[in-house]
Amino acid sequence: MIYLLFTVLLTEMALVVTLSFRNPLRKLVISLLDKLKQGRGPIVAKTVGATILVVFLSAVYSALDIQRRSKEGSMINPTDAVLMSHLLLLASLMGFSLFLALIADRLHYYIKEIHLLRMRLEEAST
Predict the structure, then answer these.
(1) Most buried in the list 51, 74, 76, 121, measured by CB within 10 Å?
(2) Could you give the percent of the chain with pLDDT greater than 70?
(3) Per-residue pLDDT tens for 73-126?
(4) Closest by Cα among 103, 91, 96 to 1
(5) Whole-angstrom distance, CA of residue 31 vs CA of residue 18
(6) Domain of life of the organism in this record (predicted)?
(7) What is the pTM of this model?
(8) Could you give the C-alpha distances from 105 to 39, 52, 80, 92, in angstroms and in order?
(9) Cα distance between residue 126 and residue 53, in whole Å
């Protein structure tokens, strides 16, 4: 699952960089995002986002549970230490993935709004 999350993160980072700067791929990415946001796309995206959020919260809760158990005892178990590091990596990757998805969505929205405002200004000036 960690390799999948790293792939998702790299894809989202590339998407955010592509949307942030004016380049030839920007129009293609915007048109692809427009098509993804039509039909059942938003429902699927919200479902996947909610699932990732629930798994993220579960990983955070499990990590906090291990931390609470380690505070009760004087020594931390090596198995708990490995499990804790795995859960923290998983939670941080999922949290950053959700954050980048939100950033990409807002960038797409703002770019579309700016494009519509420019078109309205051009129509008003002519």
Answers:
(1) 76
(2) 99
(3) 767 788 888 999 999 999 999 999 999 999 999 999 999 999 999 999 998 887
(4) 91
(5) 13
(6) Eukaryota
(7) 0.85
(8) 16, 16, 37, 20
(9) 48
